[in-house]
Amino acid sequence: MVTKLLQFSLTQRLVIVALTCILIGFGVASWRSLPLDAVPDITPNQVIINTEAPGRATEEVEKLVTVPVEAAMGGIPGVDGMRSLSTYGLSQVTVTFKDNVDTYFARQLVNERLGSVREQIPVDIHAPQLGPVATGLGDIYYYALESDTRSPMELRSIQDWVIRPQLRSVPGVVEVNAMGGEEKQYEVQIDPSKMQARGVALSQVVDAVERNNGNAGGGLLERGGDALVIRSIGTASSTEDIEDTPVDTSHGTPILVKDVAAVRVGSPPLSGIATKDGHEAVAVSSETFASAAPVNFSR
User: Fold this and answer.
1) How many Cβ atoms sit within 10 Å of the Cβ of residue 3?
2) What is the pLDDT of residues 8-49, one digit of tens each?
């Protein structure tokens, strides 16, 4: 066999040279498309379940959220292990699967089990949410938003409503996490003395703000062969809209929100701050799934 192979190689030199060139070209093409990672991702195949419980202590989060979620995850096919973390206002359960289990199939199995958990946890606790299809080593791109003329709240709004949706449309990017800045929100600061003087309860203010912050449809009005869409605009778009919301009208004179509370634009309490070169900024990291194709960003 070896003798025949040598004879063929010596007699058919052009064929051997052509095959050698093809093999070299295939090797160069494979080398150029080979993904290289300086830090290999050794994170196991896992699905993370995050549940926010605002205002709940660690013991309550463990008892009311973490334990029911862990109990519901038991018996899922392909599960290799499970671990959890309960902190103030947050429960995180990590379900680890075997390497031969498809990641999206594992997320589907976990999501099906979460349907029964949502009925067990209290109403004031947010529904459990699956974490992104990414790992701790999936950060591929970092950037910061800085400005001398815009406030941290404006920078965070630009990041959340302009940059983030466009960046998430890039193939391979599964999550964009922002740190720092101030999330814009409207705050209704109740004055207990004014509420007591006007005989208004806290539940009345909450219900009034919820009921009067939305649009309503009125159907169609046909006139002269044309159809007009009727709707009521009630969505609040400024602090003045919330201030003018009626709370109680049973005594003849309407009691408005501004009569018992102060409305202003604020942000949630900060638990940390992001800086760049000693100045406050909005820091953002982009994550990709470990098995996704390499993502190229241009400056």
Assistant:
1) 7
2) 887 888 888 899 999 999 999 988 887 776 667 778 889 999
